[in-house]
Amino acid sequence: MLTKKIILIGGSAGSFRVVNRMISVFPSGYHHYVIFCLHRLKNIRNGFVEALSANARLPVKEPLDKDPVKTGTLYLAPANYHIMTDHGFHFSLSVEDTVNHSRPSIDILFETAAEVYSNRCIGILLSGANSDGAKGMEKIKNAGGTTIIQDPENCEIPYMPNACLRLFKSDFVLNADKIVNFIRDLK
After folding, report:
1. CATH number, position 20
2. Which of 15, 39, 127, 170 is catalytic?
3. Could you tell me if residue 171 is inside a domain?
4. For residue 76, is it within any domain?
5. Residue 68 belongs to what domain range?
6. Per the confidence metrics, is the pTM higher than 0.90?
7. What's the pLDDT tens digit per position in 28-72?
8. Are 93 and 87 spatial neighbours (Cβ–Cβ below 8 Å)?
9. Active site residue 32
10. Which pLDDT does position 132 carry in this prediction?
């Protein structure tokens, strides 16, 4: 039986500062699964992991296709690949068409994780300039998971959280500081 939670963090334009703060609060030995799906330039393959690793106490890694999902690592969706989880608790990568003009798509990660981890999912949607992530967050909510949306008033670009709020009622609407505290305090 699966007992660990999976924390799924999606963001786009305006989310990098919040993500950087989040990464710094995951302690070494963190016992939940963590996957970041962030929109970024598809043709720049180097530097992003290194930038995030600067403040991390856990290794930051872009998984390869069929890598197992493990605790103790902060996973980052590779540039220009959709990232999914499967029922064998492995990653799958895809170069299928973009979703919401994005690859990686937050919706694809959130939807596949909701199918596998159901009520163990914690979806966090941050600042962004399109609606990617809203449908995936709804899937997490319908699977019994927890949904957290960055307060649009606290976002650099509030379109992504607002798209989610138009679709359904999230469990939490929190500013960046409270999201960081939630992650830090999660048992």
Report:
1. 3.40.50.180
2. 39
3. yes
4. yes
5. 6-185
6. yes
7. 889 999 999 999 877 766 788 999 999 999 999 999 999 999 999
8. no
9. no
10. 97
Q: Which of 12, 15, 127, 131 is catalytic?
A: 12
In a domain, 174, yes or no: yes
Indicate which residue of 15, 107, 127, 132 is catalytic: 132
For residue 1, is it within any domain? Answer: no
Distance CA 172, CA 170 (A): 5
pLDDT in tens, 143-185: 999 999 999 999 999 999 999 999 999 999 999 999 999 999 9
Per-residue three-class SS string for the chain: CCCCCEEEEEECCCCHHHHHHHHHHCCCCCCCEEEEEECCCCCCCCCHHHHHHCCCCCCEECCCCCCECCCCCEEECCCCCEEEECCCCEEEEECCCCECCECCCHHHHHHHHHHHHHHHEEEEECCCCCCCCHHHHHHHHHCCCEEEEECHHHCCCCHHHHHHHHHCCCCEEECHHHHHHHHHHCC
Q: Around Cβ 181, how many Cβ atoms within 10 Å?
A: 13
Catalytic, 177? Answer no
Q: What's residue 2's pLDDT?
A: 56
111-118 mean pLDDT: 96
Catalytic: 39?
yes
Count: domains in the chain: 1
**Average of pLDDT values for 90-108?**
95
Q: How far is 120 from 23, CA to CA, in rounded Å?
A: 20
